[in-house]
Amino acid sequence: MADTIKPASIIAPSGTISHKTTVHTLSQGLIVDQLKVVLDGYPLHYDLALAPYECLAIQGKSGVGKSTLLHTLAGFETAKSGQAFWQGQDLLALPAHKRPISMLFQEHNLFEHLSVLANLRLGFQSQPDIRLIQQAAEALDIADQLSKQPTELSGGQRQRIGLIRTLLRPEPLILLDEPFAELDQDTRRKAARWTADVARKNNKTLILVTHQDEDAELIADRTLQLKASAEQ
Amino acid sequence: MRKIANNPSLNLSQKLGLSQKQPSSSLLSRCLSRCLPLAVGAAYGLILLMTGLAFYGLIGFDQARLQPELLVDPYILQILGFSLEQSILSALFSVALALPIARALHFIPQLQASKPAFLSLCLLSFVMPTLVLITGLVTLLGRSGVITPLLPDDWNLYGLNGILIAHIYLNTPLAVRVLSQQMSHIPDSSWRLAQQLGLSRWQQFTHVEWPALKPSLLMLLGFIFVLCFNSFSVVLALGGGPGSTTLEVAIYQALKYDFNLSEALTLAWLQFTLAGLIFALIARMGKLNWLSADTASQRLQPRLSTLSEWIHQTLYGLAWVILLLPILALLPAVFDASIAKLNINSLISAAGYSLALGLIAALIAMTLAWLLLIPIRQASLKRQENRRIIYQWLATHSLVAPAMVLSAGLYILLLPRIDLDRWGMVWLILINSVLLLPFIIAQLKPRLLQFDQQYSRLSENLHLNFTQKIQVIWPFVRPITLGSFALALLLALGDVAVFSIFGDSHYTTLPWLIYGYAGSYRMAEAAVASLILLSLCALLVYLFERNTSAKNKRKSTHG
Amino acid sequence: MKTDLTRKNLTCRKVFIAIGLLFASLQVQAAKSELNIYTYDSFVSEWGPGPQLKNIFEAQCDCSLNFIAVEDGVSILNRARIEGKKTKADVLLGLDNALIETARQQALVQPHSIDVGHLSPSLNWQDDTFVPFDYGYFAFIYDSNKIKKPATSLAQLIHSDAQVIYQDPRTSTPGQGLMTWMKAVYGDQAASQWQTLASHTVTVTKGWWEAYSMFLEGGSDYVLSYTTSPAYHVIAEEKTHYKAALFDEGHVAQVEVAAISRYSDKKELANQFLAFLISPEAQSIIPVTNWMLPVIDNAELPAAFDQLIEPKTIGFSPEVLAEKRSAWLREWRQAASR
Question: Interface pTM (ipTM) of the complex?
Answer without folding.
Answer: 0.77
